[in-house]
């Protein structure tokens, strides 16, 4: 028998085998290139601070998750499900955290001093809470590009990434009996930097809650557990796929003024800095969508941005408003006026004879989280 050497350079591996990627490569993909900016907009911290804590964490977690699913259950068995689910829970937990002063019942000075620590603790708790699954419910095998087997990978090693290395996984019939509390410390130490770990440890009350939650040893008084659990319950109740669609479809261009504006509005609503459905409100919830007096809100938003960075170049207000409007339209976040086919609508509040006409744009329902807000039945479209 004559053996002929193949010149084919691709690995002779099955379709379930993927090449490992670095954190930088992971977030450079079309699927994830905007995720950093989404998270940054919720934590509202300087760029150098964000890079040192959050960016490094997300890089390590991406290298840990790669394209693996959360679990075998059909609803969460899609590729990249482990990272996607954790990321969504983290975003929703951070949104909920914005309206809560932590630690509860603490004095104002302590709340202000530890604000960033609590935000980071909640973000990491939400992101890492299911990491133990990788060590207990699946086996991961590494291969060279040629298809030669390298060996098994363990989650306790942290990063799955290695240049020119491929991996595949299969789920075990039964979970390993090893307790979660024995596995998580090693995984956490690989994903959280020593500096970040020591920073959290310097606040003993916060650290205890954070550590207990990640190890699955939660009490009713655990404030971090309450916030993260409610975020997770919300995602499970609405359906994981529904939340994934909102993240990927409603804001397609991360880091633009449109996305920053949407997150700012959501934050202002959570903190009750913006009222809804009142006669003097800039925001109203209707059956069709969320009505916004965009021109007035854009002015407030621009002032907010200038306070954050006084050195940034600023546009004139009208130009800023037009730029923001165009980005909202480009990202397909607005509903057209059925009569004029434009994106501007005219509505009046209360009775016709006492009407006060306002010019608004209408955001699609799923863009803002207003589930707990009732529909305003006192606002009506202006007759054409």
Summary tags:
single chain; about 375 residues; alpha+beta; Hypothetical protein af1432; 2 domains; five-stranded antiparallel β-sheet; four-stranded antiparallel β-sheet; 9 strands; about 10% strand; disordered N terminus
Q: Mean pLDDT, as a whole number?
A: 82
Order of helices and strands: EHHHHHHEEEHHHHHHEEHHEEE
**Beta-strand percentage?**
5-15%
Tell me, briefly, the overall form: globular
Give the helix tally.
14
Q: What's the number of extended β-strand segments?
A: 9
Which ranges are low-confidence, i.e. pLDDT below 50, for 5 or more consecutive residues? 1-15, 242-254
Give the termini distance in whole angstroms.
85 Å
Number of domains: 2
Tell me about the largest β-sheet. 5 strands, antiparallel
Q: Strand arrangement, largest sheet? A: 5-6-8-7-9
Helix content: 40-55%
CATH topology call of the largest domain: Hypothetical protein af1432
